[in-house]
Structures
1.
Amino acid sequence: MEVVIVPDAAAGGELIAEAVAGLLRRKPDALLGVATGSTPLPVYQALAGLVRGGAVDASRARVCQLDEYVGLPAGHPESYRSVVLREVVEPLGLSPDAFLGPDGSAPDVLAACEAYDAALASAGGVDLQLLGIGTDGHIGFNEPCSSLASRTRIKTLTEQTRVDNARFFGGDISQVPHHVITQGIGTILEARHLVLLATGEGKAEAIAQTVEGPVAAVVPASALQLHPHATVVVDEAAASELKLAPYFRATFAAKPDWQGL
Ligand code: GLP
């Protein structure tokens, strides 16, 4: 995998937004897998800036969700469907019809999971999947010890993840659902390019395990080591426990511009 160390979150956002813009110039109807949480917001802001400034046309882009809470009422502002509509679909001026996501309020959750995997496949697969990382190393909502071959399915959140996400629910952990639908690790690995962004010291240990530790289900993000085109973008704080940081810096500094991410 390629590890890129950037000075701060804004620089990471700009770098990844440029990579997405490059993809859209090559493939205007690309399917972009988007992540929720605070970390990817600078990417969406930078990309919206490129679209507004006319540097890229995103009018034919399609987006798809990585995961969703189970049981929140339709239209709840913290459902990931609402978050993606608010943070990505509207600012980029995309049609809500160009948006795929699992149905977290379906009466038959198992059928909704299978239907989502099928929908991703019939849409031609994900071209670029943006990922954040949980403090416990999760990607999407694949908590530690998720199967590395898993498909989209229902998962139970760890207490740590519910504590981490309570800030989106007014700090009230009782409002954070226990169950979620998430693309499986096997599903995520089918995307053509994986781009994981991590910022802040709180992610440093998870990043060190992801990049320099063994591939292990206990650190779900370590599955990125199995992907032929995985890029990990980290700010200085999130990179602070990487032993190979000098090598990663030298490699990126010497990279030809035409190569892109
Ligand atoms: C949630 C999401 C993940 C995200 C993680 C980290 O658990 N399901 O996709 O990566 O939060 O969020 P943040 O970027 O806010 O730290």
2.
Amino acid sequence: MKEFKGIFTALLTPFDPQNRINEKALGKLIEHNIKLGVTGFYACGSTAEVFMLNLDERKQLMKLVSDITDSRVTLIAHVGSISADESAELAKYAEELGYDAVSAVAPFYYKFSREEITDYYRDIAEATSLKTIVYNIPAFSGVSLGVDELAEFMRDERFLGIKHTSNDFFTLETIKSQFPQKLVYNGYDEMFLSGLAAGADGGIGSTYNFMADKFIRIRELFLQNKLEEARAIQHEANEIIRILCRIGVNAGEKAIMNLLGLDFGLCRRPFRTCSNEDYALLEREVIPHITAIK
Ligand code: MN9
């Protein structure tokens, strides 16, 4: 049985100059994170620019991550899409590849009804024998899953838990206390320690790509009740995230990977490209606070 509690890096997708997935850079990123001690990876999520990848590329990325990790860590495949059929197809593929769980954002854009959203998740759960993690990210998806909706899924044994990318810790705490056997992952890295305090079992985050060690340490310190020290590291991480929010999180994260010597290329458009000033700022204010990649 794989470990599900802990730190899961929501993998970035490196692109080569032809805008294809850069396998070599992805391999280096994965090895670095495994060395730092992550529990596993969240593949093909928001951080991976998943909605700018076509179906073949999503499958290619899922396969690369499973081939490279080769069962060494726990793997969660994000299979969310606006189409239930596509999500089910991806969930089946994740199972074929040996993933440990699937996860999905709620279907968006059309303002689907609660019943339609429930059916969408059931379609995914039925497509595979893997457990499903509901991905709640209201600020991006426009769909806010509240306690009632989340509880309905948590009562269903096919659901493993939720990835909660929201600062609504009241909801997080309510779900965790009502369903202690289910897993709750904190989504906003800048609020990781707050999420732990509210009952989160771990975190799934984008900034873990280049600073997973900070979040592993925060969790260790939290579990040892060393809150002052945990808060000091959360603060260090937040100084970095503050800069990322200013220049654009996805573009900034790619630029950091490039500065660390991995060829991550650019984000897909319409994401912006970091300017020379952005690079200079990251080099000065961020890189000195990050563990080098060997
Ligand atoms: O789910 C990530 N959310 C998105 C996790 O990418 C939308 C976070 O890791 C954020 O990128 C990060 C910065 O706000 O906390």
